[in-house]
Specification:
The protein has two domains: about 120 residues, abc type-2 transporter like domain (abc type-2 transporter like fold); about 200 residues, no CATH class. Helices cover about 70% and strands about 10% of the residues. It is built from 15 helices and five strands. Helix 3 runs antiparallel to helix 6 and helix 11 packs across helix 12. The radius of gyration is 26 Å and the shape is elongated.
Length: about 375
């Protein structure tokens, strides 16, 4: 019995070694995932992109800005002239927090009155918003007492008067943040899996050779395989949006038409990625492993669960090549913020470029697989 088991083990090892593609995936994938997730997963929220609207620009306001930076939680990424510009910066996603220091700030401090500072906080991510709100309140209490005491020469119990304003998600409901993200993740997984087995299934069944001898061209074959899945995936978009709105109570504050159009653009790229995987895989097992190799990093570093601002620079740069990163910004921008294409044109352009590149690679690779 042991001899038979040994012979079977030798046979299996030989098959594994001969299947170089699967062997590489099996050996490399766990190590890559460990390094990637070990650096990317960070539950500490810091380095929150912040803008300052300093409308007084005296020594006291500059000291307040310096105190904001010294917390280590706020990264000042720019100066804006007023509250309107600050709101636009948050709408675009370039900042998560804005501090507006009014022109009366210095005069109020000198007069011994609580000096007001408004804080606009992006509430679309409750974790980031709660950290920003807590840090801002703590900063205001400490800095306000210090500023007023220095100005009047006596201890003042009233802290600096911080006026926080939580935008988009005032109740900081986690569902409002998670549901749009889940829609994006589910659509990517489904779209890639739908087409990842398309060519592999034909090859394993032996029907690919039958298609080759027909007059159909490779580009026509790819379109013929891709378009039905586009229709299926597009129906999934409608279904997931319907469930998210009616069942989980997440309203769509922006243009539904724009959301559907940009979702279609994302799906074309995701389906093309799955088709490309199917052209480089010889078996369905290889296609599944390669799919997971592409889906798992997108799940972690796209900003679905963990803020990308807290990730190392190299991981953040890597996230820019993932279409899910841009699609999540589109979903949350339209559903939660209600913004339009004037703020999302960069993300839409990135999805368009990705769809074109993936489609071209799929056609080229499919030509080679037929040779």
């Amino acid at each position: 019995m042991l001899e038979r088991i040994r012979a079977l083990m030798v046979k299996e090892f030989i098959q594994i070694v001969r299947d170089r593609r699967t062997l590489i995936i099996i050996l490399v994938q766990p190590m890559m995932m460990l390094f990637l997730f070990g650096y990317a997963i960070n539950t500490t929220v810091d380095h929150i992109p912040t803008v300052i609207a300093d409308q007084v620009r005296d020594q006291r306001s500059r000291d307040f800005v310096r105190a904001v930076v010294n917390t280590g939680y706020f990264d000042v990424v720019g100066d804006v002239p007023d509250a309107g510009a600050a709101r636009s910066t948050i709408d675009s996603g370039a900042a998560k927090v804005a501090f507006i220091i009014p022109p009366t700030f210095g005069a109020d401090v000198l007069a011994g009155r609580p000096a007001q500072v408004q804080a606009l906080i992006d509430g679309s991510d409750p974790n980031v918003a709660q950290t920003a709100l807590l840090t801002a309140n703590t900063l205001a209490q400490a800095r306000g007492v210090q500023l007023l005491a220095e100005s009047t020469g006596r201890s003042i119990s009233s802290p600096l008067d911080l006026r926080p304003n939580i935008l988009y998600n005032p109740g900081l409901q986690s569902a409002n943040f998670m549901i749009p993200g889940l829609i994006g993740v589910i659509l990517q997984i489904q779209a890639v899996l739908l087409t990842a087995f398309a060519v592999v299934r034909e090859r394993e069944r032996g029907t690919l050779e039958q298609l080759i001898v027909t007059p159909i061209r490779p580009t026509e074959m790819i379109l013929g395989k891709l378009l039905p899945y586009v229709a299926i995936a597009f129906a999934q978009v409608g279904a997931t949006l319907l469930i998210g709105t009616l069942w989980f109570g997440v309203p769509i504050n922006g243009s539904l038409l724009l959301l559907m159009l940009l979702s279609l653009l994302f799906l074309i790229g995701a389906l093309g990625m799955g088709l490309l995987i199917s052209t480089v895989s010889r078996t369905q097992a290889q296609a599944m492993q390669t799919t997971m190799l592409t889906v798992m990093p997108a799940f972690i570093i796209s900003g679905f669960m963990f803020p990308r601002e807290s990730m190392p620079q190299a991981i953040r740069l890597l996230s820019y090549i993932l279409p899910l990163t841009y699609f999540l910004e589109i979903l949350r921008g339209i559903i939660l913020k209600g913004i339009g294409l004037e703020y999302l044109y960069g993300q839409a352009l990135a999805l368009l470029i990705f769809a074109i590149v993936i489609a071209a690679l799929s056609v080229i690779r499919f030509h080679k697989s037929l040779e």
